[in-house]
Amino acid sequence: MTHAIRMHATGGPEVFVWEPYDPGSPGPGEVRLRHEAVGVNFIDVYHRTGLYPLPTLPAIVGMEGAGVVEEVGQGVTEFAPGDRVAYAGNPPGAYAEARLIPARRLVHLPDDISTVQAAGMMLRGMTARYLLFGCHAVKKGDAILIHAAAGGVGSLVCQWANHLGATVIGTVGSPDKAETARAHGCHHPILYRDEDFVSRVMQITDGRGVDVVYDSVGKSTFMKSMNCLRPMGMLVSFGQSSGSVPPFDPGMLAAKGSLFLTRPSLMHYTEAREDLLAHAHDLFAVVRQGAVRVPIGQQFPLREAGEAHRALEARQTTGSTVLVVQER
Hints:
With 328 residues, this protein is an alpha/beta fold. The chain has two domains: 3-121 and 294-324, Alpha-Beta Complex (Quinone Oxidoreductase, Chain A, domain 1); 124-265, 3-Layer(aba) Sandwich (Rossmann fold). 29% of the residues lie in helices and 26% in strands. The chain has helices at 42-49, 115-119, 122-135, 152-164, 175-183, 197-204, 222-226, 251-255, 266-269, 273-288, 305-313; strands at 3-7, 16-20, 30-40, 64-72, 84-88, 98-102, 107-108, 143-146, 167-172, 188-191, 210-215, 229-237, 260-262, 296-301, 320-324. Strands 3, 4, 5, 6, 7, 14 and 15 form a seven-stranded mixed sheet that branches. Helix 3 packs across helix 4 (152-164). The radius of gyration is 20 Å and the shape is globular. It starts with a strand and ends with a strand. Pfam families: ADH_N, ADH_zinc_N. This is Quinone oxidoreductase.
């Protein structure tokens, strides 16, 4: 019998329970996947707390994983038992030793990318891809601001944007994280607790402002992020680790320079099979050529998912956090 981390109620990390779980056999269009590693993301926290409600309880959270195909259902021709695969996105259910998943959500994993590395980069890496190419097409000479520059998404955005030739500015919470961000391509790390990041951004850009702000923090940074943009710049609000952004008058976008605002989701950018494959292909390409390195900052056994969440919420993590499925 395999096991999973299940939650029977929403709440803190203590609602996670390690218990026997058998996902069963795959139905038409499905694959039974044996996980080797699972990624931990803030959306998992939102599901656990009920901020993003799950359809039913008990439930298994987790949107990202990598492992080996054990069995395929009727009509599945793209995958076979023994294939190494990875995924990120709906449906949830990754915090398990084995799971069922629609085959169309999987991608083949190149031989030179490990399952631990894949579990730490699929959601973040494909998020970085749509941020840099979908929300705003970053090009050489652009200036960008990325909040949480030493975090899982931030460290990948910094590297990839640097590879594209952009000037990369990032906010961080400590000198250690500033060094981490700098090591991953952030040209100008800003210690937001020590200095006003708006003033620093304007100083770095000679008063022009940045072309795009990538804001995963939400409530505590949203309004000031607008003040960092050039006229007709783009604010990409793709998370809310500090809380939800309060309602505001859209007229503010005009007042601050005819700004653009988007609240994107990886699920929409990769819903079509061809788009999913394009995102994964581009991510694998920059990783394999060494332009983007995937820093796995922390690893926990799957059964200690609660501890991983405590570290993530306390901002004690750098890079990606991965739950490793131990061999039985």
